[in-house]
Design goal:
The complex is a heterodimer of chains A (about 230) and B (about 240). Chain A has ten helices and no strands. With about 230 residues, chain A is an all-alpha fold. In chain A, helix 2 (about 45-60) crosses helix 6 (about 95-120). Chain A is flat, with a radius of gyration of 21 Å. Chain B is flat. The chains are: A mainly alpha (about 230), B mainly alpha (about 240).
Chain lengths: ~230, ~240
């Protein structure tokens, strides 16, 4: 084991974590907003909306993320129409393709988590909110969504960690995140084990921080479960 | 999209893609088996009385579940052949040794799948009421008989839904083995799209093949769950 090399490459890898964190936050944020909509479509009584949401989730959960990334980055370029249109400015950049793939992917998983949360809201609470004359929007804003978020938080924490891990796949389409930089350094130094271990440590740290944050939020959101002094 | 690229036989890539799907299935099956094998020891270690064994098992599941799958595969792919070559040097062999990509891929994905299976199996084990084991002891069953008649049938019942999820993860993780050069679905699609300049055609074919594999295995797991739950009374 060459510890000196590990310590030397650490700052370089940390530079890559900037891109990793960027990818994670952007795709999680957009993905989450879209996921709320998708979950509502999935729960709607309209057959077509429901079918659309079901098919979307089926496709994105049934195929590996790597296929989705390649399909967007390499696949779209097959069509001349796209290459000649304005959209090409977007699709020719690996960075935006990576973000698009990650966003669509996390949207599918999160929508299922949110759906589970919404369905776990006891019907009595919805009924009593209706009986006080709340409108549909108010009902969602004050009753259903807050309870659903609290219910879904542990599962969503897992999804966040899965996303941090998933960003390493965009290194295959030339984005220089932690894994991308690790591969670059390995190509120069020929010592894969040390550098991959250093990269793994950074991912572990990021995920550790996320689990701590999530359990802190859980603690804050469930005051009724804590013992009173 | 040019569908003639996908016909079976010499002119198209259809048969190559199907063969690659078979390789994906084989790698997933062997990875899952390796994972289940690991999970038996993982579960027993996590429930052990000795603290250092518990810490070891916890470290394994935490590390594997905390770092990206791609890194685990790279690490075992490069580290594995380095380690074997180092071992060979002790015996006086100085040449380059390349481990079979299929074996390395199965072991790498198996190690990942093992960490998830361990957590599933541990949960299933803890779901069995302790009173049943006490009752079995009181009628004079020995350890092996308790394991066979009380624990295994029920662990299977509780663990099957979770193991179904692990199987889906494992199946999708095998796509990452393409970086080792093993010709499974992703590698084949990559090669084919490189030589025909039709990436969309081949990656969408790959996606459909994965969808078929995941849907079909979902059906298998559902019927297995029904079989394992046949003794359970339903309201």
């Amino acid at each position: 084991m060459n510890y000196e090399l590990m310590i030397d490459t650490f700052p370089k890898l940390l530079g890559g974590s900037y891109i990793t964190i960027q990818l994670v936050t952007i795709s999680l944020f957009i993905g989450f907003c879209l996921a709320i909509g998708l979950a509502l479509l999935r729960l709607s009584n309209n057959y077509f909306l429901n079918f659309f949401a079901k098919t979307y989730v089926f496709y994105f959960r049934g195929t590996p993320l790597l296929v989705q990334i390649f399909l967007i980055y390499y696949g779209i370029a097959q069509f001349e129409v796209v290459r000649e249109s304005l959209a090409w400015i977007f699709f020719k950049e690996a960075y935006w393709c990576g973000i698009l793939a990650l966003t669509l992917n996390t949207c599918a998983y999160s929508s299922e988590i949110i759906r589970g949360g919404i369905q776990s809201v006891p019907f009595g609470q919805i009924e009593s909110a209706r009986s006080t004359g709340m409108s549909r929007f108010l009902l969602y804003r004050r009753i259903i969504l807050p309870i659903a978020f609290r219910q879904a938080l542990p599962a969503y924490g897992n999804e966040m960690i899965l996303m941090v891990k998933a960003t390493s796949l965009v290194s295959t389409i030339t984005i220089m995140d932690i894994t991308g930089i690790a591969r670059l350094v390995i190509a120069k130094t020929f010592s894969p084990v040390e550098i991959f271990i250093a990269a793994g440590l950074i991912y572990l740290t990021i995920n550790f921080i996320i689990t701590r944050l999530i359990s802190y939020c859980e603690f804050k959101l469930t005051p009724y479960l804590q013992k009173s002094e | 999209m040019d569908l003639e690229l996908l016909v079976l036989g010499d002119t198209g890539w259809g048969d190559e893609m199907l063969r690659a799907a078979l390789v994906t299935l084989m790698v997933s099956l062997s990875a899952m088996s390796i994972g289940l094998f690991i999970s038996i020891f993982g579960t027993l270690s996590k429930l052990s009385n000795k603290i250092y064994i518990r810490v070891l098992a916890d470290a394994y599941t935490t590390i594997i579940r905390g770092i990206p799958e791609l890194l685990v595969i790279y690490l075992l792919f490069f580290g594995g052949s380095n380690a074997i070559m180092g071992l060979a040097k002790l015996f006086g062999y100085y040449g380059y040794i390349e481990i079979n990509a299929f074996i390395i891929g199965s072991v790498a994905v198996g190690a990942i799948s093992g960490a998830y299976s361990t957590e599933v199996m541990r949960g299933a084990f803890l779901a069995i009421p302790r009173g049943q084991v006490d009752a079995a002891k009181s009628v004079g069953m020995n350890k092996f008989l308790i394991f066979k008649r009380i624990l295994v049938p029920q662990v299977l019942r509780y663990a099957l839904p979770g193991l179904g999820n692990v199987w889906q993860l494992t199946l999708k993780d095998t796509a990452l083995i393409m970086v080792t050069g093993l010709v499974e679905i992703m590698r084949q699609a990559h090669v084919a799209s490189g030589s025909t300049y039709s990436p969309f055609t081949f990656y969408i074919t790959a996606a459909i093949l994965y969808l078929i594999l995941t849907t079909a295995s979902n059906k298998v797991f559902n019927s297995a769950e029904n079989w394992a739950n046949k003794g359970v009374r339903r309201a």
